[in-house]
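Sample entry follows:

_____
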Amino acid sequence: MSQPTDAYALLVQRGFVPVELLRTMRPKDWIKNSFVFAAAVFARDAAGRPLFLDPTSFGMVFGAFVLFCMAASAIYLVNDLVDIEKDRAHPKKRHRPLASGRLPRSVAVIAAIVLLGSALPLAFVIDWNGTSLLQNSDFGLALLFYVVVQGLLYSFFLKNIVIADIFTIALGFVLRTVAGALVLDIPITHWLLICMGMLALFLGLSKRRAEMLLLQQNATSHRRILTEYTLPMVDQMIGIVIAAAILAYTLFTTTAETMPHEPFPLMLMTVPFVVFAIFRYLYLVHRYEEGGNPSELLLKDATLTGSILLWGVIAVAVLLIAPV
């Protein structure tokens, strides 16, 4: 093992506060915030060129990504503070810095306040055009709504309501996508909401399924709502959502106004990669009981990562080459 890895392990073992704080902020999960780029990838400017080629537009979306990372990390800190006792009954989460006692609660509270106190004001000015701030605060309102729903309503209320807990998890992904459109004043199409909504529900249901299998008999002591679900019911929901997601994306590639349609709907070439990625994820969920953390699964499964990257390369190539 290399010396830097040994040094990092030593810091973790000794409970080095900055390292433990960073771990609690979940930098690996920041990949979820890449949903903010979705609208910019498929949108076009007035001249018909892909919007992601514009440096200013890309910079604004990247700024939105950073602000969502800050807000999401603050929410992770709040969730871990609220669930600290329940996490101690979890076979994996009991090793988290707060649950294990390596990170003081006071440090987590201060960090959450600083992150939110910085991210929210910046969100209200990132797309400000010099006129009325209240008339140009769509992105700020979207981020504020995300924080309220995910950080407050979910942590203290919605996660204890069956079905509503899954919809709230899915809503977090949809809000990221919507916010990415709002920061650039891109029209939010029904295809954007349907495709991202179905994908988000699939990820949320897979998360619940993984938790049920991991906790099994100890589910009640960690999260009471898990007793309201059964594996057959969750599997049936996943099947419905997958079918709807694939159908919605296929229709999007063939009917959306921003997609090329001559000499044929070229974006149809990306459908097999989307289907493969979904099936691969489903395979990992069932065969290896994964799905509890989509970010970790994406980072450690090369086949899943490769299929998504291939989808991205082909989609960008089609948008660059083919006219609308």
Notes: The radius of gyration is 21 Å. Residues 52 and 59 are 9 Å apart (CA to CA). Residues 1-188 form a domain with the Tetracycline Repressor; domain 2 fold (CATH 1.10.357.140).
